[in-house]
Amino acid sequence: MTPESFVVTEPCIAAIDGGGSKTLLVVLRADGTIADIQQTGGTNPFDQPLWRERLTGLLKTLSPSTQAVGLGLAGYGESATLCARQEDAVSESLGQIPYSLTNDVDMACSAAFGGEPGVLVLSGTGSMAWASDGRGQHCRVGGWGSLFGDEGSAYQIGRDALTLLTHILDGRNSQDVAFLEPFSQAMGLPSDPTLCTPALLEWYGNLEHPRSAVAALARHVSTLAENGCTPAATLLEAAATELATHIRAARSQMPGVDLPWSYAGGTLQSPFLRNAIAAQCGAPVSPHLPPIGGGLMTAARQAGWAPDASWITSLSRTLAAAEYGS
Known about the structure:
With 326 residues, the chain is an alpha/beta fold. Helices cover 44% and strands 17% of the residues. The chain has helices at 51-59, 80-94, 104-113, 154-169, 180-186, 193-205, 210-215, 218-226, 230-252, 271-281, 291-302, 309-322, and strands at residues 12-18, 22-29, 34-41, 66-73, 99-103, 118-123, 127-132, 138-142, 261-264. Strands 3-2-1-4-5 form a 5-stranded mixed β-sheet, with helices on both faces. It has a 4-stranded mixed β-sheet with strand order 8-7-6-9, sandwiched between helices.
């Protein structure tokens, strides 16, 4: 639906999953059916200049019949100044509609475990782990941003892939030349080194949003690794080790609780990457709900609904059928 055509008169709740690369809005009717789904660009205030316009643009499409809204926003809780700006943007847009606001990874953790204890490792444009004991205690690991963090993220995988490519092109790496042809072709670049070098620099010089563009390269690395490209597999195994370190650190901060781990984010849609982490941390638990489900659970409670196990199972099926993406 478009903002112009969206009219809901019956009671409903809504949730927003505001990530670094995209922001998702889902509106749910009381009967469990989806009234609206909308998506826009990233709303992380640390690196998205249009974050406020995108966020408020979605919120202003909500009907007055909306009973509650659950929001998980990238960057929330990481800077007092930016938190205040995020809170202002939400409160000004929603008016009298009740809402809850938390970090997007906190919301994803609640969704993955249905509110039960666990460690959620998220790898999308950035990376972070969030652990909860299910009783209100939580901790976070990572999430420091691309300048000095985000290990195991799509951005780091993409950047490492570009580094490997340049080392092959200028002769610093002669062992991983098998990476050159498939990766350059995946990027739409010529595989001939004499042509690839200027084409790569041209690609770089025309980037409008470098962080997102570099992060998008991770999916090529994943595909190549799945297809048996050894250098690509090495890149993903290194990312897996970083993410496994996140999980172990989060578990160590919750002593006395045997925490399972689960996953969220586009990067961890890669079976190769998940299996590489599992080799170090044990098999993951499949998420009960995608991240947006955590916001819907919170909004349901706030609206006085009963989001029990049966409700969560039904919501999981509804969101999966909608195929909106993770």
